[in-house]
Design a protein that fits this description.
Elements lengths: L8 H7 L2 H7 L19 H13 L5 E4 H11 L5 E5 L20 E5 L5 H12 L5 E6 L6 H13 L2 E6 L6 H10 L4 E4 L3 H5 L1 H10 L4 E3 L11 E5 L1 H16 L15 E6 H7 L5 H6 L2 E3 L1
Parallel strand pairs: 1-2, 2-3, 4-5, 4-6, 6-7, 7-8, 9-10
Antiparallel strand pairs: 8-9
Helix pairs in contact: 2-10, 3-4, 5-6
Length: 294
């Protein structure tokens, strides 16, 4: 299986229900299940090398996490079943599947294929800051452009100028925030990326230091000190993925397993951060929140 580094605390939190769910479906480590862990942060060719290791090990299925992992696994094999957990890609546009209901190839799984979600993030920033006119959108060039395009379209419709910034690794984050402030951004949206997921606390700290109210797709961003977070409940998403893996291990082929979307989303707001940034969260936004952190 292909996944994030085993010592990544953020990943462990998200992954905690995956193995128990497989056990409930009849697959237990040490009995009839062995899991090969292969991934650490790296460049695309390094991730591809890890995917090739799994192919050479003749695994029965590959769990490919995040867009770079799915791309690497798809390049490494067209025959071994691949179950994706991907928050960044449009599976049809990327060529991973012919249709969502009938993928047709060796890839199925979980995709956050909601083009309107980027607009939701901009909308929520606008609700929290009604006078918002300029928002920085931070993206990782290693993942697909679909979420960024959605944010740009939402900016046009909502009258918010989008300032596009990039970061390839945690070391580039502070430069991106400096650029956002230099270009007079009033808020920041960090799009989905495995790099950003692991650097949630760093992004929250930078947003507070540079006084940029921020939002991310990862609900725990608000727990880390970010202003707001809205996105899929990742633990539940991995639980869904485990059910797809179980189907594959029971003999189903990915070509016949419909691609699923996350079923549980969460809005979290950190009122302490709002006070520190001088942002007044409207009551209607607070009522909609699943969690309000005082």
């Amino acid at each position: 299986m292909l996944r994030a580094a085993p010592d990544d605390q953020v990943f462990r939190q998200n992954f905690e229900l995956f193995v128990p769910t497989l056990r409930e479906r009849g697959f237990a480590e040490g009995s009839n299940l062995a899991i090969e862990y292969r991934v650490r942060p790296g460049k695309s060719d390094e991730i591809l090398a890890l995917a090739n290791e799994l192919v050479q090990a003749r695994v029965d299925a590959i769990l490919a996490i995040a867009a770079p992992g799915v791309v690497a696994a798809s390049k490494a094999t067209s025959s071994i079943p691949i179950v994706a957990v991907d928050l960044e890609s449009d599976p049809v546009a990327m060529g991973f599947a012919r249709t969502l209901s009938r993928p047709g190839g060796n890839i199925s799984g979980m995709f956050l294929d909601f083009p309107e979600l980027s607009g939701k993030w901009i909308q929520q920033l606008k609700e929290a800051m009604p006078k918002l006119a300029r928002a920085a959108v931070l993206s990782d060039p290693a993942v697909g452009p679909f979420l960024l395009r959605g944010a740009e379209a939402a900016g046009v419709s909502m009258g918010v100028q989008i300032i596009k910034l990039e970061a390839r690794n945690p070391g580039e984050l502070e430069d991106a925030f400096r650029a956002a402030v230099k270009q007079q951004a009033e808020a920041v949206l960090a799009l989905s990326s495995p790099v950003f997921a692991s650097a949630r606390k760093r992004i929250a700290d930078l947003a507070l230091r540079y006084r940029l109210p921020g939002i991310m797709p990862f609900p725990n961003f608000a727990d880390d000190g970010g202003l707001m977070a809205y996105g899929p409940h990742l633990t539940s998403m991995f639980q869904q993925a485990a059910n797809v893996v179980a189907k594959v291990l029971q003999g189903a082929h990915p070509r016949d397993i419909p691609i699923e979307r996350p079923v549980r989303f969460e809005l979290a707001i950190n009122l302490g951060t709002a006070r520190a940034l001088g942002v007044t969260i409207p009551p209607i936004l607070r009522v909609r929140a699943d969690r309000v952190i005082e």
